[in-house]
Specification:
binds taurocholic acid; 16% helix; alpha+beta; eight-stranded antiparallel β-sheet; Penicillin V Acylase, Chain A; lipid metabolism
Length: 325
């Protein structure tokens, strides 16, 4: 499972938890402005916005899991196994392979509104990256530095682009159903509840956090959607960048999957392999991993974004304990 969130705190922060049972060897990858981006069914982009995100590189192509661009737009792909449906190439449409959607949007959109425009008359085409690497069943959240966000889902009904009023995405079911489910939890609150059940009877509030008593806590995607929405909606705004990114990771940690809790096969467990969060205004990409709680950062503006070749940073996966004696 995965969870993605946009959080506004002066600047906006966007990223995700990547939950899977096996690490795919991802790296932090910068695609500079003048690296030629080829598409299977769309014109080549010789120049475009610079991109930073988590990806694997195959045949010199960045297969992004999630990323942001220098204009403050972010996008993440999350599993959508079952409802996801991609179509054959259709004449007269913008045919985008699912693995191209992240670079397609980030290379060209400077806002969610522009991303929507890019998606009009689009078709997510059922094109595999290679014989060995088949299209993954995904849906996507796109967000920008104003805090706006949309959800993009391609199902048998066609391509749906929904406004995302909560700025959260997990996995199944389809996005409108996630919002219906969220309604069930609208009375969940950081404050103590009002006794409307038996107002004339004294019912003790025997614990702090009583208002969040009915918040779901499972690993499943509906539970994570509700919990992440609650954590994000009530997250404090920090006084500076360090406080904000710290708050951001606390939101993601509220739905982090510890090893051993989500069995996806005999003795095989899905877990939060990495969490990342970017400052959409400053172009700084932060991440932590399951094995390394320290926050690491790559600032895209410290690289030559006018260059023509991919820039990669290996993941810093070693736990660093600061011994105090
Ligand atoms: C598995 C990842 C999503 C994580 C997630 O949502 N897990 C939940 C699992 S579940 O609901 O509980 O089943 C997705 C996110 C981005 C995906 C990758 C990116 O789309 C880039 C390429 C695209 C290629 O078509 C397939 C390999 C791939 C490298 C993808 C592998 C995998 O499907 C990734 C890594």
């Amino acid at each position: 499972m995965c969870t993605s969130v946009i959080y506004q705190a002066g600047d906006s922060y966007f990223g995700r938890n990547l939950d899977l049972e096996v690490s795919l060897g991802q790296q932090v990858v910068i695609t500079p402005r003048d690296m030629v981006l080829n598409f299977r069914e769309l014109p080549t982009l010789e120049h475009h916005y610079a991109i930073i995100g988590m990806a694997i590189v195959r045949d010199n192509y960045p297969l992004y899991f999630d990323g942001i661009n220098e204009k403050g737009v972010g996008i993440a792909g999350l599993n959508f196994d079952g409802p996801a449906h991609y179509f054959p190439v259709q004449e007269g449409k913008k045919n985008i392979a699912s693995f191209e959607l992240v670079p397609y949007i980030l290379a060209q959109a400077s806002s969610v509104a522009e991303a929507k425009e890019l998606l009009t008359n689009a078709n997510i085409a059922n094109i595999n990256f290679s014989e060995k690497m088949h299209a993954a069943p995904l849906h996507w959240i796109v967000a920008d530095k104003t805090g706006a966000s949309i959800t993009v889902e391609s199902t048998t009904a066609g391509l749906n682009v929904y406004d995302n009023p909560v700025g959260v995405l997990t996995n199944n079911p389809q996005f409108p159903d996630q919002l219906v489910n969220l309604s069930n939890y609208q009375s969940v609150s950081p404050a103590d509840p009002q006794n409307t059940l038996a107002p004339d009877t004294t019912l003790p509030v025997y614990s702090r956090g009583f208002g969040s008593r009915f918040l779901p806590g499972g690993m499943d995607s509906e539970s994570r959607f509700v919990k992440a929405a609650f954590a994000k909606m009530h997250a404090p705004v920090g006084n500076n960048e360090v406080e904000n990114i710290t708050n951001y990771f606390h939101i993601l940690q509220s739905v982090e999957q510890q090893k051993g809790l989500d069995e996806v096969g005999p003795n095989t467990y899905e877990y939060t392999i990495y969490s990342d969060g970017s400052n959409l205004s400053k172009g700084i990409f932060y991440y932590r991993t399951y094995d390394n709680n320290q926050i690491n950062a790559v600032d895209m503006h410290k690289e030559n974004l006018a260059s023509t070749t991919l820039i990669t940073y290996p993941i810093n996966d070693q736990q660093k304990i600061e011994y105090q004696n």
